[in-house]
Amino acid sequence: MASSAAMRDLQRELESKANDLRKLQKDIAKNHEIRKKYTVQLGENELVLKELDLLSEDANVYKLIGPVLVKQDLAEANANVRKRIEYISAELKRLDATLQDMEDKQNSKKEGIMKVQQKIQVLQAGKAKV
Amino acid sequence: MATARGKGTVTSLSSTFPAEEARKAADLVNHTINEKRSELDNLRSFVADNTNLINLVQRLPDELHHHIQVPFGKAAFFPGRLVHTNEFLVLLGEGYFADRTAKQTVDILKRRGQTLESHVDSVKAVIKDLKAEASFFYRTAEEAAEGLVEIREELSDDEDSEGSQEKEDAASEPEVGIGSSAAVLDDEEYARIMSRLDELEKEELEEEEEDEDTEDHRDVTNGEDFNNSEQSEVQHHTKVLSDSISLPNDADKSIHTYLNLQPNHKDDCSRGKDILQKFVERPMEEDNVPSVVKTSFPSESRSKSEVYVPAPKPEVGNQLSRQVKTDSLKAFTGSIIERTDNLQISPDREPINQPSNSQPSKPVSRFKMQRRGV
Fold this sequence. Notes:
A: mainly alpha; two-stranded antiparallel ribbon; 2 helices; 8% strand; B: mainly alpha; 2 domains; 14 helices; elongated; Prefoldin_subunit_alpha (chain B); chromatin binding (chain B); RNA polymerase II subunit 5-mediating protein homolog (chain B); phosphatase inhibitor activity (chain B); RNA_pol_II_subunit5-mediator (chain B)
C-alpha cells in the first residue's frame, strides 16, 4: 500500500514537472520568434541606414506616420534610424540572455524528470519482485 | 547488448541508435529542409520581382508620359496618364521614403538585389548542411537496421611497445637502404632523399659534437701557437671536426655543395669519395701539420675511435683500399697525399684511426653500409 502511495506521489510529481517543462519550452519558442522578428527589423534598419548614408544632403526624406507622409530632415532621420538600431541591438542582447536562462532552466527540469522516472522504475522493479 | 570480452567491447549500433529513432530524426531534418526550401523559393520570387522592377524603372524615364490603366478600388480600372516619369518616391524600409530619380532608384534596387542574393546563398548553404545531416541519419538508420556493431578495443601497453619496436625497425630500414642503394644508381629522387637524410644526420652529429668540442673550440680561438704538440694535435683534430661538421657556416656550405653534387654523382663509389673529399680536404688546408702530431694521436684518438668505430680492423683496411681505388678512379690529390703521408710516418694503426677519428660516427657507418652494399 505504502509503495503504491509513493508511486502515486511520484507520478504526480512527474506530471507537474512535465507541465513546467512544457511551459518553459513554449516560452522558449515564443522567445525565438520574437528574436527572429527583431533580427529581421535590425537587418531592415541597417539597410535603411546604408541608403540614408548614400543620400545627398538636400534629398527629400519622408516618414510614414499612420496614413500620412511627413517630411523629415535627413540628419534627423539618420539619427532616428541609428537610435532604433541601438535599441534593437540592446533588445536582442536581452533576449539572448533570457533565452540562455530559460534553456538552463529547461535542462535542469529535464534532469529532474529523468530522476523521477528512474525512481518510478525502481519502485516498479521492487513491486515486481514482491 | 554490450558484451565485454577481454580488452574490447562490442556494441550493436541499434542499441545506441535505434533504427526507428534515427529514421525519425532524419524525417525531422527533412521537414526543416522542406521549410528552408519554401523560404528559398520565396526569396527567389523576391529576386525575380526586384529584377522586373529594375527593368521597369529603367524604362520609365524613356518617355515623358505613359498611358496606363489606373486601378480604382479593387476591381475597376480607368485610363490615365503617367507623368513625372523620372521622379520616384522610394520606400527605404521602416516607413522611411526618399525622393529619387530613376537612376538612383535603380542603384537602390540593385543594392537590395545583392542583399537578397546573399540571403539566397546563405539559405542554400543551410539546406546543404541539412541534407548532409539527413543523409547521415538515414545511413545510421540503415546500418542499425542491418545489425552493424561497434567494436572498441583499448590499446594495451605491451601492444604499444611492440608498435614502437616496429617503428624502430622501420626507421632502421632506410639506413640499410642507403647502403644497398648502390644497386639503384640512377634514381635522382632517391638520391635527393638520401642527401636529405645525410644532412639530417650531420645536423644531429653537429649537435652531439658541439657539446664535446666546446672546450676544444676555446683552444682554437685562443691561440695559433703550435708550441705544444699535444695542443696542436687537439687543434688539428677539432679543426677537422669543426670544419667538416660543427661550424655552422662552413658546415652548411659543405652540406650544400654536397647536396648540389649529389644528383650528379650517381654511383655510390663516387659519392663516398665525395664525402671523403669533404672530410679529408680540411687537413690539407691545415697547412702541413707536423708529423709529430700524428704520432701523438693515439693517446686521445684511440679512445675516441673506440667510441666511434666499433668495427673490426679488416673493415678499416677495406676502407683504405677503397680510398685508394676511388683515388685511382678520379685524380683526386687531397686524400692521397694525406694518406701516404700518414702511412709513411706511422705504422698501421694511427693513420687508420686518424680519418675515422676525424670523421664522426655516422659517415663511418656509411662506409660500413657501403661495404654491405658492395
